Amino acid sequence: MGEGREMYLVVYNAGMTIASVLCTASVVFTLLNRGLSKVWVGAGQMFVVTQWLALLETVHAAAGVSKSSAGTAFAQWFGKSNVLLAILCFVPELQNSWATALLMFVWSSSEVVRYYYYLLTIVMGTTIPERLTWLRYTIFIPMYPIGMLCELLIMVLARPHIKGLHSVSLPNALNFGFDYQAFISALVWVYPLVWLPMYLHMFKLRAKKLGDGFRDKLKKSQ
Amino acid sequence: MKLRLEFVSSHRKGKSKPPNGKFIGEVDLGEGATVGALKEYMKKIRGYAYCRQEWRKQPTSVVKDGLEKRGDLVKGKDEEKLSDLGVKDGDVLCFKDLGPQIGYRTVFIWEYLGPMVIFPLFYLYPAAFYSQQRGAPLRTQTLATYYWCGHYAKRILETLLVHRFSHATMPIRNLLKNCSYYWTFAALVSYFVNHPAYTPPLGGDEAYLNACLALACLFQAGNFVCHVMLTNLRKPGETGYKIPRGFLFEYITCPNYTCEILGWLMFNLATQTAWGYAFMLAGAYQMCVWAQGKHRRLKKTFGNKYPKNRYVVLPPFL
What we know:
The complex is a heterodimer. In chain A, about 75% of the residues lie in helices and about 0% in strands. Chain A is globular and about 65 Å long.
């Protein structure tokens, strides 16, 4: 079980690293060749596929294949999917916005570092290059807030375009109703409140991973 | 009895206040010292209310990474002697501040009062919540509102008159957690039950509605009987576990939960809302967890003497 599990996680994380590299590359190439407004047209489809594959992270956590918590994994997947799969895929008016292009770059480049780090932790264990550890626990400092602000901006800009989208209205047999536009309006207020503790948590992890003798190790390796 | 008192040594990160194993004082509480005397002393010198105080014996063994295994809890009624709880002369006792506490009874009343007030708001003032106009309420909506309020009125009365809480308290932030659970579900269920476009099951068939709610009331009555029997299980002053006998207890370990779950099932069959079913499932899950804990505890305590044929909570599945 142990070895098969490891092998599987290596394949998965390697695949996701490659997918994220491809996402980043297509963002950069479309940006340079066709301009800011065409980034979604050029790279959007690849992001959608990668995001659906990322749902497996929640499955892994729930099934005990990985050690992370299923709740946190799903919350992160849901937050990103809400913007990518539920808004950007459905609102053409936002697809050519600069916020979309910036967000796609921030998302994919952060994921490259994250998946590559996971991959090497499994393959190399404690002998993982210190500089990669440093990058993994440093790059989030600018990336997280930029990503969050872009996501927030997209939700605000989407509001007028999503009336009736993904919504269920009464009457129906289960007496259930859902107003996605109202949900987004509420989420805009809740988002930063949920996001801030996660951001601060990353700093705690950073102190744990990069503190205590990390600098010495880094110097030695240079 | 001479004792040395220390703050509990805490290795958990961010919980280093008060400092590890910090000395509080040495005290001679005299012959036959009680739990109350110890707590009174702590209250006098440090100002912690009785219910905030948790006492343990000094940890005696190390588990791993220098982390100590927690010492045994020194817990008893105020009038119990420390020597009866295994505390010896010259022992070291470790103190932990449990934080601000609130009584179970107070929490229960607040968490049940909310749904009782929130649910009828949607029924009585639809204009304030819905953009569509609503005419005269349907029979289903009227009876559902009465049933819902009656259910929580019963819970409040039981809290006041039936349940025994002794001095039990919980951390004050549980109040917020519990209230948001009950209040939010009450608002969601009521919003859809009293919606102008609400569709009653079977077109609001009267016989069906009456049958469902009558059964729901029957289950509530069963739940009430179980609660009274549980209260009378121990005579005043008695402590320790006892095997409940008679009525539904002959077949199920926690029939009070069985009745509660089936009561909500009947309410949902009568009203048919997605959120109502979600509320039932969330509650049922929690009650199954509790029931399993109780079943295990009873089996562990009584071994072969605990009747084997009893289901945990949901016959024939569990």
